[in-house]
Design a protein that fits this description.
The complex is a heterodimer of chains A (684) and B (169).
Chain A lengths: L17 H11 L11 H9 L7 H7 L4 H33 L5 E5 L7 E4 H15 L4 E2 L3 H15 L9 H12 L16 H22 L17 E2 L2 H5 L10 H9 L2 H14 L5 H12 L3 E2 L3 H12 L2 H4 L1 H17 L3 E3 L5 E5 L3 E9 L2 E7 L3 E2 L11 E2 L3 E4 L9 E8 L6 H14 L4 E6 L13 H4 L2 E4 L7 H15 L9 E2 L10 E3 L5 E2 L10 E7 L6 E9 L3 E5 L5 E4 L2 E5 L8 E7 L5 E8 L12 E6 L2 E6 L8 E8 L4 E9 L7 H4 L9
Parallel strand pairs in A: 1-7, 13-14, 14-15, 17-27
Antiparallel strand pairs in A: 1-2, 3-5, 6-8, 8-9, 9-12, 10-11, 12-13, 16-29, 17-18, 19-24, 19-26, 20-21, 20-25, 22-23, 23-24, 25-28, 26-27, 28-29
Chain B lengths: L2 H16 L3 H13 L4 E3 L8 E5 L19 H7 L10 E5 L6 E8 L2 E8 L4 H14 L7 H9 L10 H4 L2
Classes of the chains: A alpha+beta (684), B alpha/beta (169).
């Protein structure tokens, strides 16, 4: 029978032994053993327990590694990517569900040297299914002409029960082109999930069959008439061993069979029936039983080594495989979204889910009370003095979890940098962590790497930011510990009750006409106005609990000078005027007060629990501040963890107050950029 | 079936059983090794329809295990028994669960025999096309209108050249 050749055929001789198989993968699977796929060789060696060094081919030969053992090793080292496909498919399905578009396009556009890659959800589902078949030793259905037609007859038999239901719009569009124009449409309608989860499994199997038949048929030509030239060529082998062996009989490579199916319009009938059945809810029990029984009783077969290799080569030839760095980065994004929980919406626009170097808003989580946590990819923010090579006056981490306003670097609560390195580049990793920690002064910063990192990266960091940085090595689907570490990090950063964490941006307080008291839940109530002789005061009072709380004030003044006033440095001067801490109180009940003799450009107020135990939550602590008639009072959160209570940021000259009212493990030192802002919100 | 035909079939099967028949014997020896050590040979239906099957499987004419279509394979006996005396090279249908799915044909040189291997599942279209092909190579054609109708009932085009030696031009 005539064979279609959608991809270059691999001679069987190349599958006779492991070293030939490796050559075949390098040649036909476009494996770049010295470049992009360099990770394969040591991983395969490890799996096969081969010594390091020397050409792999020679080692395979010397150790008499069988084809099967080699294939297993290759599948093992590529398996993490199959798992990533699963997680990514979950992410894409979520985006698809929220967009209402069941065949979403996913676009990868990171690499200036490669054209952007777009893959639709249907193709991605197929890729995932093929990968599963190759890697999970699943039995595949041995479809042939009779069974392919038989299942269509079965679906056709159900049709009478569903009068009045028509196919969805994208199926209708496809049918129009297929039936009236007699051509194979360029894109396929997306798989339609069945309402019944049991039937959905069968429906998915049938949709994959349909999609495979259509794809194979299309390879003969865009017009359906191209198939009519297919003839049965009646190959007769001279050697029965060829026949008796495991020569593959894949109906999808049999143009004669495809032609016979198309004679009666199988593809059109099948998708019509399947798409109608998918919409029926509930499906009558008899129909569910008949369909399940038919599919369950179809003959199945193990995938032969040859077929596995061919399928593997098909996968390795896919554009998405060649861009595994981007795939990996997108997968990390999927783990972030998974970590944020079910209330997270994955964003798509105009039927597209975008992963782009120019920045993209991947998702928003609404699962944290009044806060919305936004997940941004490649969010670029200004930073004056980055250390990392290639960074100039800006930072652009792979992922930023940010509160509102997202344009403010201070709104970031978690920054994730993704590395797909085989060997750690410790200085480069440290530079990235430090730049991001300093540029996003409120954020925890994590660097996740596909490979090992080892020790010594965080030790290279500036002490001021070290506590906020961490590395997660070997971050891959099969490493449960790394996944848990990452999930815990996300939970710790954002999984807090409302008001515990993150800024609650209130309307700017521009004068003293509306004094407020802010409670931990973010509510407010007016209080009596009180005025002192100073330009401003910030007063900390606590009643019980920890004996020693310390008031810390950071301020920007005199054109950008940053000062830190606390018990360690009780005074900051601006000419002859001072901002001064009055007393360092070390017992409860206690009070500390900072008096302002001049109006700074910026004030950050925080309280440190110097005693450590018990928590600030039990201190009944409150901070009252008064500037030019504006009186505010913040009460410490009653739940949460952390030795620091970040109270607020205030820009007196702009009349802007950002209340954080959050417990944190550390309080970031404000940057000059964040502190000194002009009226438009930009930096001076 | 003439006594000469029977003698040829017996000789052929005897060669197969003794494992002294070139490529086929080699394969059958492998086959014996893989199975329980026995194969079942069908009652003779002439040189165009000899059947060998795993123990536990019915011969081709009665098979219900490997084929994927509902119709009985009696129809192939109706086609092939009449042409038994006309074929110069016997046709042996080999059914085994260890055969690859579908239908494949091999021409063995010693003894000269067409071996039609049938694996689970095999399809009606493929059986017809392969039989038509094997008959065509021997210059044998059968022309049955009823079979053209049967092909049509299976959703196939009876005028397809693949079936020309079963239904005529």
């Amino acid at each position: 029978m005539p064979k279609l050749k959608p991809l270059e055929d691999i001679p069987d001789t190349l599958l006779e032994n492991s070293w030939s198989l490796w050559k075949a993968l390098v040649k036909y699977g476009d494996v770049e053993k010295r470049e992009r796929d360099i990770e394969f060789v040591p991983a395969i060696r490890t799996y096969l327990k081969l010594p390091e060094g020397g050409p792999l081919e020679r080692q395979l030969r010397a150790n008499s590694v069988s084809t099967e053992e080699m294939l297993e090793a290759v599948l093992k080292v590529t398996a993490p990517y199959g798992e990533m496909l699963r997680d990514l498919l979950d992410l894409f399905e979520r985006a698809s569900a929220s967009s209402g578009d069941n065949n979403l396009n996913v676009r990868f556009d990171f690499n200036s040297h490669l054209k952007p890659l777009t893959i639709d959800l249907s193709a991605f589902r197929k890729l995932r299914a093929v990968w599963q078949n190759v890697t999970e030793d699943r039995l595949e259905i041995a479809w042939n002409h009779d069974t392919i037609r038989g299942v269509d007859h079965l679906l056709q038999g159900f049709e009478g029960s569903f009068v009045g239901i028509s196919p969805p719009v994208d199926v209708k569009r496809w049918l129009e082109e297929y039936e009236k124009e007699r051509r194979w449409p360029d894109s396929e309608p997306a798989a339609i999930p069945f309402a019944s989860s049991r039937l959905d499994t069968y429906g998915h199997e049938l949709w994959l069959l349909w999609s495979a038949i259509v794809s194979a048929s299309r390879t003969t030509g865009a017009s359906r008439t191209a198939l009519s030239t297919a003839r049965f060529d009646g190959v007769v082998s001279d050697n029965l061993e060829d026949v008796a062996g495991q020569k593959s009989s894949n109906p999808l490579s049999d143009a004669w069979l495809l032609r016979n199916l198309d004679v009666e319009g199988w593809s059109g009938n099948f998708i019509r029936h399947l798409s109608i059945l998918a919409q029926v809810s509930p499906v009558p029990e008899a129909i569910e039983r008949d369909l399940a029984s038919y599919v369950d009783n179809l003959p199945r077969r193990e995938l032969s080594v040859t077929r596995k290799v061919r399928m593997l080569v098909d996968i390795l030839n896919l554009p998405i495989w060649r861009r595994r760095n981007e795939l990996y980065s997108a997968w990390v994004g999927s783990r972030i979204v998974a970590g944020l929980g079910a209330d997270t919406v994955v964003h798509s626009s105009a039927g597209k889910l975008l992963f782009s170097f120019s920045g993209y808003h991947l998702a928003t989580s609404h699962g944290f009370g009044r806060k919305s946590v936004h997940v941004w990819g490649e969010l670029r923010t200004q930073f004056s003095a980055p250390k990392g090579k290639g960074r100039k006056k800006a930072i652009q981490p792979d992922f930023s979890l940010t509160l509102e306003p997202i344009t403010s670097p201070e709104s970031s609560v978690l920054v994730v940098e993704v590395k797909h390195y085989l060997q750690p580049a410790r200085q480069s990793f440290a530079d990235a962590l430090e730049d991001y920690a300093k540029g996003r002064c409120s954020a925890q910063v994590a660097l996740v790497d596909y490979g090992p990192i080892g020790r010594g990266v965080t030790e290279k960091l500036d002490k001021a930011v070290r506590d906020r940085c961490q590395c997660i090595e070997e971050f891959r689907p099969e490493h449960a510990e790394a996944l848990e570490q990452f999930a815990t990090l996300i939970r710790n950063v954002v999984d807090a009750s409302p008001g515990e964490f993150g800024p609650q941006l209130l309307a700017p307080f521009v004068g003293g006409s509306n004094p407020q008291v802010l409670d931990p839940a973010g509510g407010s109530r007016p209080v009596a106005e009180e005025k002192g002789n100073q330009i401003g005061t910030i007063r900390l009072h606590w009643s019980t609990g920890p004996t020693d709380l310390d008031l810390h004030i950071w301020l920007a003044h005199n054109g950008g000078t940053l000062s830190h006033v606390s018990y360690q440095n009780k005074e900051a001067m601006d000419g002859s005027l001072a901002v001064k801490l009055q007393d360092d109180c070390m017992s409860a009940p206690g009070e500390e007060m900072v008096q302002f003799g001049f109006v700074p450009q910026y004030v950050r107020c925080a309280v440190h629990n110097y005693s450590g135990q018990p928590s600030i939550c039990s201190a009944e602590a409150k901070v009252a501040s008064e500037f030019g008639g504006l009186l505010t009072e913040c009460v410490a959160p009653v739940t949460g963890e952390g030795q620091w209570w970040l109270v607020f940021d205030y820009w007196p000259r702009l009349g802007e107050l950002k209340v954080w009212n959050s417990l944190l493990p550390t309080v970031p030192t404000p940057t000059t950029e964040a502190a000194v802002r002009d009226k438009k919100g930009g930096t001076n | 079936m003439s006594s000469t035909d029977e003698a040829r079939i017996d000789a052929l099967l005897s060669d197969l059983a003794r494992g002294q028949a070139g490529n086929l014997s080699e394969v059958m020896r492998n086959y014996f090794g893989k199975s329980t050590g026995e194969v079942k040979v069908s009652s003779h239906r002439g040189l165009a329809m000899i059947s060998v099957a795993d123990v536990g499987l019915e011969p081709f004419e009665h098979d219900r295990t490997l084929k994927s279509y509902a119709d009985s394979n009696h129809m192939f006996a109706d086609l092939l028994v009449p042409v038994g005396p006309s074929v110069s090279v016997p046709i042996l249908f080999w059914l085994s669960l260890s055969n690859s799915p579908g239908v494949s044909v091999a021409l063995l040189r010693n003894p000269k025999v067409y071996v039609v291997s049938l694996g689970k599942p095999y399809a009606f279209a493929d059986v017809c096309a392969n039989i038509s092909n094997v008959l065509g190579k021997q210059g044998v054609t059968v022309k049955y209108k009823w079979f053209a109708k049967t092909i049509g009932n299976h959703g196939l085009d009876p005028t397809d050249p693949a079936f020309r030696n079963l239904v005529g031009e």
